[in-house]
Amino acid sequence: MSDDESKIELNRRRVLGGIVTVGAAAAAAGAGTFAYFSDSEASNDNQVSAGTLDLTPESGSLATFAFSEVKPGATKGPHSWTLNNAGSIDGSLDVDVTVNNNSGVDDGSSGTPANSTDVSESDLAKAIEVTTLSYGGADITGQISGSTTGPSGYFTAGSSYTSLYDLANNTHADGSGDGESDGGNDLIDLADPGSGTDFKIAVKLRSEAGNDFQADGLDVAFTFMLNQNGGQ
Questions:
Q1: What is the pLDDT of residues 70-92, one digit of tens each?
Q2: What whole-number distance in Å separates Cα of residue 53 and Cα of residue 163?
Q3: The pTM is what?
Q4: Which of 4, 31, 137, 143 has its CA 20 to 30 A from that of 13?
Q5: Where are the domains of the chain?
Q6: Which residue ranges does the record annotate as region Disordered (predicted)?
Q7: What is the DSSP string of 66-106?
Q8: How far is it, in rounded angstroms, from Cα 29 to Cα 149?
């Protein structure tokens, strides 16, 4: 090999060596430390508090009604309650209705002709038709699943109607799909009353009611419940 050839080969080695050296320097530079910007802000004194449901009648208390001197074929009412939710969260309104015999048999001492027949509470409730049942101006009798043709033994079977007995003994299937009962209340899942919603009822003693119903009466109780969830 000539000296020139030897020099050329050596130069190539140097060049290759130089390339390797540069590559190593670049790798070393990549292993250096870098700084990143950052900033933070804090939100303190946050709170979580429970909301409230507060069912209140507009007058401060639920007034009672007395439908007295009722005669066959006559309608009494409607009686109206205005309900409010003074709480901070919306709810679902349920209504439970109960009827009890008030032992209204007259003994004649009041000057009213005596009536020795004490019609049972269920028979009397079946003789009383619910002619108006509304909430917020909307008819809600469609929630009542039952109907009657009157108390057996007192009325001749005719056309069916919604009675006070049907309202007080109304049942609802579980429609929520959660496997839980709908609370057993007679009217369920009514809208939140907000700042004021009227609940109205009117009744009529059916014209078929005869002398056996004279002086008999019922005590009727309406219980309104505002729940967080429908069917609760």
A1: 899 999 999 999 999 999 999 99
A2: 32
A3: 0.73
A4: 31
A5: 1-29, 55-227
A6: 100-121
A7: ---S--TT-EEEEEEEEEEE-SSS--EEEEEEEEEE-----
A8: 98
